[in-house]
Amino acid sequence: MSMFVSHIDLLSDVCEITGLSYTVITDSAGSKGFLVTLALLLAVSCKMIGFNRELLSKLVQLGVILVIGFAAKTGLKHVTESPRPYTELLTHQLLIPNPEHFYKLDMKQKDEVIAQVSEHVSEWRTRHWQGEKDYSFPSGHTIFAAICLAFFGGLFAQHRKYGLAALVMVWAFAVAYSRLWLGMHRPIDLVGSIAFVAIVYALMPSFERLGDELITRLNLPLNVSLK
């Protein structure tokens, strides 16, 4: 990622296909589309292995990890107070004295500053800047993508669906890169997000007993194939 980010120029022209592609990719892990992505991956998982004790216990685990991930993202942003990369461009364009100053402005002033730089920056980038004016570290999009890769990628690989696992990995990598391309994050934000998910996932219990209890209470068979 560090090697790839060196060539990104936030002032460069962006064609419609490129801008739309990165927008769709980044939105698939953001507030606009993460539920769709999650539903699609869950549907594929149920189709592949059926709704059974294994999947139910893993879904409980996934839910807990998602809650921890999203909560930690919000908390860490306020603790680290790392300015987003595009605030550096605003500084270079002499619109603000330094990146930290951007966060002292009210929402209207932030909108106006970003609008001023829109003469030099593609709308495909500034529309995301207008939508996300909070701090940079860690990347919430990358946290979600890393969780999906660890959970669904691992689940698919465990059941020897290596093609599906590879697709999830490519998607997760594309999401991470889109955040760099848009000027929303630095490589360290992505690394921190992935490391955080890895630690949480490694420490998370399996919830197998809870899965068994839910199956018993819901009076479900141990294995319901949806194929």
Automatic annotation (TrEMBL):
Domain Phosphatidic acid phosphatase type 2/haloperoxidase intervals: 57-205
EC number(s) on file: 3.6.1.27
InterPro entries tied to this protein: PAP2/HPO, PAP2/HPO_sf
Keywords assigned by UniProt, alphabetized: Membrane, Transmembrane, Transmembrane helix
Gene3D superfamilies registered for this protein in UniProt: Phosphatidic acid phosphatase type 2/haloperoxidase
Keyword Membrane: yes
Transmembrane segments: 20-43, 55-72, 135-157, 164-182, 188-207
Catalytic activity: di-trans,octa-cis-undecaprenyl diphosphate + H2O = di-trans,octa-cis-undecaprenyl phosphate + phosphate + H(+)
The keyword Transmembrane belongs to this UniProt entry's keyword annotation: yes
UniProt-recorded Gene Ontology molecular function terms: undecaprenyl-diphosphatase activity
A GO cellular-component term linked to this record: plasma membrane
Pfam families with a match to the protein in the record: PAP2 (PF01569)
Enzyme class, first EC level, given as a word: hydrolase
PANTHER family linked to this entry: PHOSPHATIDYLGLYCEROPHOSPHATASE B, SPHINGOSINE-1-PHOSPHATE PHOSPHOHYDROLASE
Record protein name field: undecaprenyl-diphosphate phosphatase
The organism of origin for this protein: Vibrio aquaticus
